[in-house]
Each structure stands twice: as C-alpha cells, then as structure tokens.
Amino acid sequence: MLEALSSSRLNFLHASYDDNDYDTIIVIADNTMQIEKLPYGNIIIKRMREKQIIDNNNHRGFVTVLPNEKGTTVVIKKNVNSKDLYKWFSDVSKCFKTADITANKRIALMLNHASDQSADAMVRTVLAHTQNMPNYKRKPDKCIAEIDIIGDYAESDFLEVLAKHKGNALARYLTTLPTNYLTPLKYIQSIEKMAKTEGWRYRLYDKKMLEEMGAGAFSAVARASDVAGVIKLTYQPQEGFDKTVSFVGKGVCFDTGGVSLKQPQYMEGMNDDMMGSAVALGTFLALSMQQVPYQMHCYLAVVQNNVDKNAFLPNEVVTALNGKTIEVIDTDAEGRMILADTLVLASQDKPHLIIDYATLTGAAVRAIGTQYSAVFSNHYDWQDQLVQCGIASAEKVWPFPMDNLFLQDLESDLADLKQCQVTGNADHILAAKFLQQFVAKDIRWLHMDLASCKNKGGLGAIPTEITGVGVWYSCQLLDQYFSLDEHTDTV
C-alpha cells in the first residue's frame, strides 16, 4: 500500500539550461535586474508592468507563458516575508494552480536570488503540489515530476525539507485512502512493514491483550471492530539520549458513530477519522529521518467504530487502564475513549513530552474554522510559543483554556467522570479536559484537535483539501522544546 507513495525527483544543476526543456520555470526574484536575466526577461517585465505589479512589493506572484517553442510557463514570486509565511505559501499555491504544475513532467526551480528561507519554502511548496495521492480512476492523474534546482545548491541543503515533506505526504496519503483500502488490519500490517524498513522497534497491543490489561475504554469501542489494537513504535538515536518524546494518534479507520449513528451527511468522509494517527506517524517519520538526538515513541490507536450486536452503548460504565471509571454518554465520542487508554500507555514510559493528535470535535471547527487547529496543554507557560510555532511553520494553531472548572461539566453520578455531555457548548475543551485525566501529572502534554485537517482549496503550501496538518508544526515545536523551563505549574 505505502509503496505507491512516490514523490517527485529533485536534481541539482550548476550548468546552463535550455528553457525549452521545461514545462514550467519557477523563479524567486525581487527586482527587474534579476528578472532581466531570465529567458525573455524583457518581455516578462513588460507584461508585469502592464499588470501594474512590477514595483508592487506585496504582489502575490506572476504567471505568464514564454513565447518559446515549448510554450513554457513562468511563475515569479518575491522572497518570503517572514511575518506571514502562511500567506506567502497561499499565494504561491494559487500561482501553481494557475500554472497547473501537477500536470508537468519537468520543472526548473531557479533559486539564484533566493534567501535560505525562501529556497526551503519554495521547495516545500513544489514538492507538496507534485506529490501523488491515492487515485483509483481507470486513467489516474499521477505525475512524478523531474524538478531541476538551478543554483548553488545540493541535496544536503534540503534534507530537513525533504524529511518533513515525506512526513506530511505520508499523513495526507493515508488519510486519503478509501475505507476498504485502509481497514484496521491493513493499517496495522502496513505500519509493521514500514517499521522494519525504517529500523523502528514495533509492538502491537491487540484487542485481547488490551482487555486483559484492563484498558476498558479502548476495549469498549473495539468490541464491534473485527481487528483493533494500539501500535507502539520506538526510535532510538544512535548515541546516548536524556530526553524522550511520545506521540499519540487517534486511528479510527471509519466512524459510523456506533449506535449513536451519524446522519449520512456527517458519515460521508469518515475514512479520514484516522488522520490523528497519520499525523503522529508522519511526524515520527520526519523526525527519525532527521536522526534527532532524543528517543521517540509513537502510539497509534487503531480501530473502527461500528454498529454491531457487540457495540458499546450509552450509559455503560467502563474502567480505563489507570483505574478511572467512565460513564459512556455518546458512542460517537469514541475518539476520546481510545485515546484515554493510549495516553495511559504513553505515560508509562515517563516521557518529557506527550503530543496527541486527533480529529476529535466539531466544536473546534465551529470555534476557529478550518485554517487553524485547536491546541490544549496542561502548561499555560508556553501558549505564546505554541502560537509562534504555528506562525513559523505556516500551520496555525490557537490555544484554549484548560481550567479545572470545566471538569464540573464531566461530573457523573455513576462513575469518576462522564465521557462527554449530551448537548452543550465547548465540547472541544471538555474533550481535552477528559483526556488530561489520563496523562500523568508530571508529564508536559499537548493535545491537538485538528480542525484544519480539511480545508477547501488547501492549506498554505498544501494544495489538497486533506492537509496532513501537524507534521511541520510538530517539527518546528520540537526544534524549540528542549530549551523550555520544565519547572512550571500545571493546569
């Protein structure tokens, strides 16, 4: 399955080139002197002046077709304005859609006048736009492009970009797969095979094992799933380490809502309810490819939420792995159930940080739309840094309050806490407060409710509605994480 995830090829040219060899030439240039050196540079400048954008420092990019034999399309964009990287990506993506670079077989990327940040950003965007995704048409629209990078660059200059791109592409690819192509069994088998290829340690906690361990929250959802389990992956750095990070992902391969059955308009597209696990896995891949100097674990909770004679029911009381009892209210709130036990498992490793990812609540989307994701933490001290990492990675996030007063809404007469409320506001916050009860108090924890998992027209550098959001963000955050003061008060 994952063998089909093939990317465009990067080549590095230091010699002259022929514009007729390329379907598209992409240029970073800030002034007319730089544009004049391009093929038909004077014609391009004249056309830009006609559009009144040649002297516009904020222009969104320019697309034109050269009068050469090939009819080569040229895309011109200025260097990155670091104050709003997300807008820069969005503008470039619009230019690429106008130029239709997904149909191109040969692309020239001219970075002679690019800043380091602009070069990385442009390579990131080109790779995202030319990445193949699942396609089951009789004549698939797949294109594996040859991308020639022209300038004083080598592959080593873009290793981080390539690693993060592959992580994001993996997350998008898995999330796009149809329901019958990514059943829990197929998902588990593919990850096991991937672990062998990448040299990760692999362990599967299957349904029987989790039930025997006392993971009643996960087991309740898994009762109606033919195959289910929690996968644990481990990356060990080559040299010694003194820090550990754990990723946790919600992997509901399809969500019917269980006996709290979804209406058809909300059930369509529920093959993407495993995107949290795909983002966790993509982040794990991206960081292991960069050979980070800390240990990583990745826990993927894989299941289907089915309607079945064995399906769990509202008003059941189940006992989670840490001994806490949960009153089930809504079987369509299954994600927080499987994550509860998985977070307990992740806590047992005593990592310095746990990040969990889930397409968890519609309330997050209603609160902030689909261009941001919602973040929650048991440490208020790093809220500003969480936001700044979203700006720097062009995967924007916004933090929400986590006061203990929200726990009042989860009080139960029968159990230690309710799973959720039947109706009411702030379900995204209540879901986060519920999950917090299963994270050890001495562990720094971040929960990402992936409201921007789908965004019509793409998200920043990403051209597809399914965005794979979270991979670039997490890599940015972890680049800075270890400088944090960990002796701060928890919420």
Question: Would you mind describing this structure in some detail?
Answer:
The protein has two domains: 2-153, Leucine Aminopeptidase, subunit E, domain 1, CATH 3.40.220.10; 164-481, Zn peptidases (Aminopeptidase, 3-Layer(aba) Sandwich), CATH 3.40.630. 33% of the residues lie in helices and 19% in strands. The chain contains 15 helices and 17 strands. Helix 4 (116-130) links the parallel strand 5 and strand 6 (146-150). Helix 11 (334-347) runs parallel beside helix 14. The radius of gyration is 24 Å and the shape is elongated. The protein starts with 8 loop residues before the first strand and ends in a 10-residue tail after the last helix.
Q: Briefly, what is this?
A:
With 491 residues, the protein is of the alpha/beta class. The protein contains 15 helices and 17 strands. The protein has helices at 32-36, 41-50, 85-99, 116-130, 159-176, 184-198, 207-213, 216-222, 264-267, 275-289, 334-347, 362-368, 383-393, 427-436, 471-481; strands at 9-13, 24-28, 62-65, 73-77, 106-110, 146-150, 201-206, 229-235, 244-255, 295-305, 317-319, 325-327, 353-358, 373-377, 397-399, 417-418, 444-449.
